[in-house]
Design brief:
325 residues; mainly alpha; globular
């Protein structure tokens, strides 16, 4: 308990330290938020778009859950569980707290879905989202390689990193379908090494979980690519009017995969601070001078959307009380 408290204090310390540095250096201007959030229609439209993306995530999660479900599951109810989960991710410390709470709601959908399987399913859903993200970055970087590489050496390195990660995804898929035992054979000599042992075991567990969903992996990948592409378009739609420079959709598809991966790493809550710094740097490669401001706008829209999860949470509690009576 104390360890988790200390860990969260450190994370928030890093986040607010980075925010303070960006504000002091003139790279982050919170007054822009007042301008953005002055239009209720804009807020509603963007929130609706983000919730639509979450609904498609529920479709992907349903595909994963159906491997063990004894009946057809309601996509809408899975969406509600996910909506409640993102609410708790916003209000409680820890980047996966909402995922754990979401499991309790998913358990009500089918008694055959035990907690252990649901935790694996929710984790696999996150992994597929990450794979979809890096696949998009690699594909766009490959299609526009010549144009992007000519912009600057920094952009060229970013593009090459995207392509390398895509290559890793392709090799992983080939191994998954044709050489499932290969990762275990490669890991065997390293299992007894004290420093690497625990990491190797966790990676092997992840590989075993991935193998369980092999039959649906292509469907999950296609869905993940669509979900992440939609999320990138939402980011671009939000940020483009306020960009200090030309922020094209092609730029968004090149930069956002790397930027979003940095947010997924649990250094700070929701990418707070870290995401601001990363997007400031990445978008500067494309001569956009206010990357931190653009991420800040997106961050607050995500936070607002997550907080709307209080609505289904309160309705679910009310319904539960009525059933008990």
């Amino acid at each position: 308990m104390l360890k988790n408290i200390v860990k969260n204090i450190i994370k928030f310390g890093i986040a607010f330290g980075l925010i303070y540095w960006l504000v002091e250096s003139g790279k982050l201007d919170f007054s822009l938020l007042k301008q953005v959030f002055s239009s209720p229609l804009t807020i509603l439209a963007i929130t609706a778009l983000m919730l639509t993306d979450h609904f498609i995530v529920a479709v992907r999660l349903k595909l994963i859950l159906m491997r063990k479900a004894s009946k057809n599951l309601s996509t809408f109810k899975i969406f509600i569980s996910n909506w409640i989960g993102i609410f708790f991710n916003a209000v409680l410390p820890g980047s996966v707290t909402g995922d754990v709470i979401k499991v309790f709601y998913l358990q009500d959908l089918d008694e055959k879905l035990d907690k252990k399987f649901l935790l694996v399913a929710v984790f696999m859903d996150r992994v597929m989202g990450l794979i979809g993200l890096v696949t998009i970055g690699g594909i766009i970087s490959g299609i526009n390689y010549s144009t992007l590489s000519s912009l600057s050496n920094d952009v060229k390195i970013l593009v090459q990193v995207n392509l390398f990660i895509l290559l890793c995804v392709v090799l992983t898929l080939l191994t998954l379908f044709f050489y499932q035992k290969l990762p275990h054979q490669i890991a065997k000599p390293f299992r007894d090494i004290k420093i690497l042992g625990n990491i190797i075991k966790k990676l092997e567990v992840l590989w075993n979980d991935l193998c369980l969903f092999r039959n649906n992996i292509i469907k999950l990948l296609v869905l993940s690519i669509f979900i992440q592409a939609f999320a990138i378009i939402i980011f671009w739609y939000i940020a483009e009017p306020y960009a200090a420079g030309e922020f094209t959709l092609a730029t968004a598809f090149t930069v956002l995969p790397a930027g979003m991966i940095s947010i997924a790493i649990p250094i700070a809550p929701g990418g707070l601070g870290v995401g601001h710094v990363v997007f400031e740097k990445l978008l500067a490669f494309f001569n956009i001078s206010n990357g931190a401001d653009l991420f800040n706008i997106y961050f607050f829209f995500v936070l607002f959307t997550n907080l709307t999860g209080v609505v289904p949470y309160m309705l679910y509690r009310k319904k539960s009380k009525e059933i008990k009576k």
